[in-house]
Write a structure and sequence with these properties.
two-stranded antiparallel ribbon; 23 helices; mainly alpha; 434 Repressor (Amino-terminal Domain)
């Protein structure tokens, strides 16, 4: 078996001259739990991965080994678009010249909607090549009258320019998602800055709040919990101030609800499970006032996403047993063995749920169930599943524990980029 997360933890611990006991104490877990992580017999939850990375003075991607360049995913050429995206993001305010005038804004908006749909469905490979050209055209439209506007201090941008900036924010959001999923976190952070720039230029308050939400998400992944908490709480207050007096339109409800779900994940990874449950209860209040699952400002929020986060909070807290009980209880409402997200939910959200549950079942000793959920995640969103570090870690652990050496499991692991020794 090739190098896995546990081996990287062990190697860095030795480099830092820390004993198993010292590292276990630093992240508040038992010695036996750390040994299982290092041996690769237990999956490292995302929150614990962040804490271990902090204790070892590295970034989380140093432990996951991202970006992945040595597995089966190289066949898809998913990384081929990365250099072009870096170039476009670097020249965001002074784009390359076009060989022909940009297409009309309505045409660009239609393509942006197509890109947004592909992002939600985790179709990163076909989405990537569309982004550099679309970003360049939108930027030319957005900056078309920048010189004349600069001569008129205080003059607002024309409506078309503001809309072009709004579409740019959506496209940069797609770049952020692509870069994050592929493991190019430096590019992901740059894309978030571009989302904020375009959102600010669009004069759309909810788009600006969404940009802040993305920044907070990056902070959570890096373990900057206090800063992220402060940012999200401030953003929620700002969104409420934007709303008409004594009412919260659907879009405002959805954006605040998404922020509360992000706060719930933040709190559990910061070791505050009770506070995380309180955030979920607050989010439920907002979900109850929506007609169902919604998509507003590139965020997915509603009853189904709330349930997905309830399960994720329990798994992140280490209570995998209760998480599995919960999905069985909800499954009974659907006359199924386990709860299934609705078919029309964003595929990225649904696949993420099955990836989380697969890791929980592995921790509970249900290897067959874990593998079934990995297959379900791949069926729903293959690109998202293939590039997800939890999938690679879970699949690698399943193969290590598979004494029967099932070809189907080994084949899935290879597909996910796990290198197996003969």
């Amino acid at each position: 078996m090739s190098e896995h997360v546990g081996q990287r933890i062990r190697e860095l611990r030795k480099i830092r001259q820390m004993s198993v006991r010292q590292l276990a104490n630093a992240v508040a877990i038992s010695i036996s739990a750390l040994q299982k992580y290092e041996n690769g017999t237990r999956h490292v939850p995302p929150g614990m991965l962040t804490r271990l990375a902090q204790a070892l003075n590295v970034g989380p991607t140093h432990l996951t080994g991202q970006p992945y360049l040595n597995g089966a995913e190289t066949e898809t050429q998913a990384q081929a678009v990365i250099p072009d995206l870096r170039r476009v993001l670097l020249s965001y305010d002074d784009p390359d010249d076009l060989l022909a005038p940009p297409r009309p804004l309505p045409v660009l908006i239609a393509e942006t909607e197509h890109v947004s749909a592909m992002r939600r469905d985790s179709k990163y490979v076909p989405m990537g090549p569309l982004l550099p050209g679309l970003l360049t055209e939108l930027t030319h439209v957005a900056l078309a009258d920048r010189r004349s506007t600069a001569r008129r201090p205080g003059a607002s941008l024309e409506r078309q320019q503001r809309e072009a900036f709004r579409q740019l924010a959506i496209c940069y959001r797609a770049v952020n998602s692509l870069a994050h999923k592929l493991g190019y976190h430096d590019l992901s952070l740059t894309a978030i800055e571009r989302v904020q720039w375009a959102a600010d230029c669009s004069d759309d308050g909810l788009m600006q709040a969404t940009a802040g939400y993305l920044k907070a998400g990056a902070m959570v992944r890096m373990g900057s919990f206090t800063s992220a908490r402060r940012l999200l709480e401030g953003l929620m207050e700002e969104v409420e101030r934007m709303a008409p007096e004594r009412s919260l339109p659907e879009a405002h409800l959805a954006v605040i609800g998404a922020m509360l779900l992000k706060l719930a994940i933040l709190e559990v990874r910061d070791g505050r499970l009770e506070r995380a449950q309180e955030r979920l209860a607050e989010a439920r209040w907002y979900a109850d006032r929506l007609p169902g699952d919604t998509l507003h400002y590139e965020t997915s929020f509603g009853p189904s996403n709330l349930r997905i986060h309830e399960v994720a909070v329990l798994i992140d807290s280490g209570d995998t047993e209760q998480a599995l009980v919960r999905i069985r209880e909800w499954g009974a409402e659907q006359d199924r063995e386990e709860w299934e997200p609705p078919a029309d939910l964003a595929r990225e959200r649904s696949s993420h749920h099955y990836i989380d549950v697969a890791s929980a079942k592995l921790a509970a000793g249900d290897r067959n169930g874990s593998y079934r959920d990995l297959l379900r995640a791949r069926e729903i969103a293959p690109h998202h599943t293939r590039f997800h570090p939890t999938v690679r870690s879970t699949a690698a652990t399943l193969v290590r524990l598979d004494r029967a050496q099932h070809d189907s499991l080994a084949g899935f692991a290879r597909w996910a980029g796990v290198q197996l020794t003969p």
